[in-house]
Design brief:
Bound molecules: adenosine-5'-triphosphate, magnesium ion
Distance between the termini: 21 Å
Structural class: alpha/beta
Number of domains: 1
CATH topology: Rossmann fold
Shape: globular
Oligomer: single chain
Number of strands: 8
Strand order of the largest sheet: 1-2-8-7-3-6-5-4
Radius of gyration: 15 Å
Order of helices and strands: EEHEHEEHHEEEH
CATH class: Alpha Beta
């Protein structure tokens, strides 16, 4: 089953492939300077989403969690993708060493796994993407968008419309 629109800015993924397809859809709408903060627990699908994003931008190289490097660059697509995984970062002052301040909000699309813990040190303007497990089905996730700033708002509206078109939902919310 394909990705479904539940209501405004809330979608249901019924498989890892749906989450990857969602990443590909988002890839068609992102612009230089966009910041996506991925939220949700361990193993919820943040890296799988990022895999779809890279693929949708046109970079076919593998995406894995940049656990030890903290940042991975995928620059073989339409715009660069900077993939951060801040799970192992303990202190905000360590952010400097990741290179995040060189690109965040300026260049390419930045994706942050476990970025919400450093929200105060990072940019205000971002699109938050929260993945939530379904207690009754190991393969299902709810994906919810929350926009901070005018650009993120526009991006959320665009994503919502695009998911609406593919899921065939008719004005449910
Ligand atoms: N609907 C779904 N969407 C995404 N992943 C799913 C889904 N259903 C099952 N999965 C599985 O959940 C796992 C998600 O792993 P992934 O590495 O993307 O999580 P993560 O959120 O990046 O975790 P971490 O916090 O450890 O980085 C994969 O094994 C994937 O196959
Ligand atoms: Mg991950």
């Amino acid at each position: 089953m394909a990705l479904q629109r539940i209501d405004a800015c809330r979608f249901a993924s019924s498989s890892v492939d749906d989450t990857i397809a969602f990443g590909e859809l988002v890839a068609s709408l992102v612009e230089d300077g966009d910041v996506l903060v991925l939220t949700g627990g361990l193993g919820v699908g943040k890296t799988q989403f990022t895999k779809g994003l890279a693929r949708g931008l046109g970079d076919e190289r593998p995406v894995t969690s940049p656990t030890f490097s903290l940042m991975a660059v995928h620059d073989g697509g339409r715009i660069p993708l900077f993939h951060f995984d801040l799970y192992r970062l303990e202190h905000a002052y360590e952010l400097e060493d990741t290179g995040i301040y060189d690109v965040l909000g300026y260049e390419g699309v930045c994706v942050l796994e476990w970025g919400e813990q450093f929200q105060d040190e990072l940019t205000d303007a971002h699109l938050s993407i929260t993945l939530t497990r379904d207690p009754d089905d190991a393969d299902r996730r709810t994906i919810a968008l929350e926009a901070f700033g005018a650009r993120a708002d526009a991006l959320a509206v665009g994503i919502d419309a695009a998911v609406g078109r593919i899921s065939g939902a008719e004005g449910m919310g």
